[in-house]
Amino acid sequence: MSYRSLALIALLPLALTADPARAQQVAPQLPPDAAFGSEITVTATGVESEVADVPAATTVITREQMDDAQSASVADLLRRVPGVAVVQSGDVGSLTSLFTRGTNSNHTLVLLDGVRLSSPYFGGYDWSLPTTTALERVEVARGPFSALWGSDAVGGVINLIPERRRDGFGGRLLGEGGEDGWERYEATVGFASKAFDIQASGYHRANDGVLDNGDATGEQGLATAGFSWGKGSRIGVIYQDLRSEIGIPFVSPGSPTPNRRQDTDQQLIAVPLAWTLSRSWRLDVVASRLEREIDFSDPDDPWGYVYSTTFADTDQARLASHHTIGDHQVSWGGEWRADTVSDLGPFGPNLDEAETETVSAFAQESWQISPELRVLAGLRWDDTDSYGSTTTGRLQLGWRLTDTLELRGGWGEAFRAPGLGELYGPFGGNPDLEAETSESAEIGLVLAPVDGHTRWQLNVFTTEIDNLVEFDFVTMTNANVGRAEIKGAELVWEQGRLDEVRWYLQASYLDTEGDDGLPLLRRPEWSASWTLNGELGRRWSGDVTVRWVDSRDDVDPVTYERVTSPSVTTVDLAIAWKPWRSLAITGRALNILDEEYEEVAGYPAPGRRFYAGLRWDL
To answer: Which residues contact 600 (CB under 8 A, 6 or more apart)?
Structure first.
């Protein structure tokens, strides 16, 4: 029996117990000072919704939580999210991958305010790049979301929402220094009136690293501006210029590469339009262009691969029309995307402006059948000229059993389109590749007492992935020969209020199996974290996080044999003291226990480190 059948059978009793006659009644509401009712997400539904009202596994990292943790990297905060595993290849700034609910690193779609960032070359995203500077929040929606967002949303979607100025003049200055040559500078300034807003920010960070040629440097400029009118209408512009440079100290332990470097440049411009045509009709349109360039060099490479330059550009336009009709919220729209990749090396061009074009159409229905029952259903069609078309569906239900207890269930399909490098690259390229596809089902419980300051969540899920693209040594090309089965569970306990001390406890379990019958690499069976953060009186604030990661399988970088990386426990602490209202003296200590461990086999993670700085709110 398929997951589709199991999901529909499991969800049928929820629909049968609904009472349509009560549809006009008001659903139970959390108190206005609730910690969780005020968290907003657009990623899970495509429109602004309170997290408590969305029947999907969603986590929001707020600006306050970023400030309490003082972290420069978004990836460090994502380590605390249930179902998410982050692995960094050594020191700060090194290549960083992310696995959501056990799926591959190219199975999580990455967005900046709804604009796709995931690479069209081989897929995936380097999580060493984004920092917390000038972000309003980070939204993590776990589960299959291709029915709403298209390709790559197999394990989930992560949406980075930039800040924009809301009222008057303001900004922030930040400086921080620490061990191993760490330096971090950030500046944000903005102004907003009733009709106009503008904000600009920049950051610089640098780290010498503990190994020779292990340094990393990152810089970013991010600007938002907009003109508003009427009730909720706005046209804006987003511009991002992101650059990084890292040294690669070795290709495997014992094989140093003192001159191997990689530079990354990324420029994004997007024009979003939100147009409120009436009380029941809203139109969202965004057009964007993203240019990426990655330069690799190693003059000492013994095989003559001394340099390469990759250009990957994406042009995209998306339209979504949202309609409120009684207890129904209907959304429909379409997308157009064109990807172009060129890759040049010392032996000539590997790809010369390889192109693919995708046209999509989608529809979604959110129906509050009764005060107790919510249904979210979606359908999407994607047509790509490089491999054909894919249709994906999604169904999620939330049934409020009592004022404090909700039962949730869901089923969904997702896919990942093959990258242009997999299709047309000289080393294994196969233009006959098809999309990787998945089918998932989940069921969960949410317990939120009426005080609004506590929330428990339990999600149990299963996913089957077929047509995985792997290198076939028989044909010496990429082929759709892989498959994976994933089962898992997530338990979350949140306690507190947004303006006070709050804790967040999560535990995740994964049972993964590849087509070889072995667990998938770098995905721990068990993981957990506990975070306590918030205001500690008028002058103090802080964050302490204890994180435990179970042992996990990996590949030895020298022998290429499967090895087991041992479990590890790390403790991070951040504290801030405000001698004046607008000035904070900050300090943080990472890996306080000075644990020796490797998130990627052969690449030692940083040991104990101390940082101190100043933060001035204008």
So the answer is: 87, 88, 89, 90, 522, 554
